[in-house]
Amino acid sequence: MPATLRDVQALFYDLVTAPEGVAPGLIARGQSGRDLEAVIRGDQRMSAVERLDVYANMYFYRILDVLREEYPRVLALVGDAAFHDLVTDYLLVHRPRNPSLREAGALLPPYLARHALGVARPWLPQLAHLERTHRELFDDADDELLSLDALQSLSPDAFATLAVRLCPTHAVLDSAYSLSGIWTACLSEPVEPEARGELLLVWRANFEVRHRVIDDAGEAAMLSLAAGGATMSELCEAMTARLPIEAGDLAGRAFQILARWVDDGLLMRAADIKTGEST
Fold it and tell me: Which end of the chain is flanked by fewer CB atoms within 10 Å, N or C?
């Protein structure tokens, strides 16, 4: 049996996460309940194996509860029993390696793509990915955002050379299905998305994570460039490369998109990017 604290911790982890329970886990290690008594003390009420089984049950059901909260739409669409089995299968393949429960379900979307549930409904892993993205962006750190007043106060030259970038609390997801159409509905009734691709912008504004469909080719081009940092003139050039916009309409259209980004809390000052100046 283990002789150091690290060995005790490794034994505890292996037995608590053993697929068939503590007793079969001991047998698989060539050990018995009597061996476990050398590490975990039993008494007349509960043996060492029974005591550790309490933790083993807590381990699974606590993670199950966390994933129910993190993936409420997947849960609603597959049902409680199927979701229970999904989490069981998932934990057999991906035992938690991070002490934070926040990371327990991080690999569920790609795992679901290989699971029978995801194979039968290929849009399900993409929905799970969108739900996980909401969770991750909610926890990300804040940054100083660009205000609309600052944007409106710029001269034309200053506007053209202003360097900005999208805040890190955003993500752009390319889905093969119309997930936005079922995001709310699937919590109350079993619905399936249309097989129609959509580009989703997901971001956190204050304490709320939102998403919307990007159906403007010009905005999509600007988003791709702004993620790494660009000047306003470069963003306008990216838009005109995708859309046949007259020169007179370019500034107005670009400003509309940028103003929406500012209002959404998507743009941050980036004086260190490119050569533009930020206010």
Answer: N
Question: Residue 222: what residue type?
Answer: M
Q: Which of 121, 136, 160 is the last residue of a domain?
A: 121
Q: What is the DSSP letter of 115?
A: S
Helices marked H in 71-188? 72-78, 80-93, 108-114, 116-120, 123-139, 148-152, 156-161
Q: Which residues make Cβ contacts (< 8 Å) with residue 260, sequence separation at least 6?
A: none
Per-residue pLDDT at 152: 76
| C-alpha–C-alpha distance, residues 167 and 165, integer Å | 6
Its domain, for residue 204, covers 148-269
CA–CA separation, 215 vs 34, rounded Å?
65
Which whole number is the average pLDDT over 32-58? 86
Strands 208-213 and 198-205: antiparallel
- Are residue 78 and residue 171 in the same domain, yes or no? no
- Strands 170-175, 163-166: pairing is unpaired
Q: Which two tokens stand for residue 153?
A: 């106060």
- Counting the structural domains of the chain, the total is 2
DSSP collapsed to 3 states, 181-194: HCCCHHHCCCCCCC
Segment holding 198, helix H or strand E: strand 198-205
Q: What is the average pLDDT value for the chain, to the nearest integer?
A: 85
Single out the residue in 121, 139, 169 at which a domain terminates. Answer: 121
In DSSP terms, 211 is beta-bridged to 202
219 inside domain: yes
Angle between helices 5-16 and 48-70 (to 10 degrees): 70
- Residue 134 in any domain: the answer is no
Q: Is residue 130 part of a domain?
A: no
* Predicted local distance difference test score (pLDDT) of residue 277: 42
pTM (2 d.p.): 0.82
Nearest to 213 by CA among 173, 185, 257, 186: 173
Q: Which two tokens stand for residue 12?
A: 């505890």
Using the 8-state DSSP alphabet, how is residue 144 labeled? P
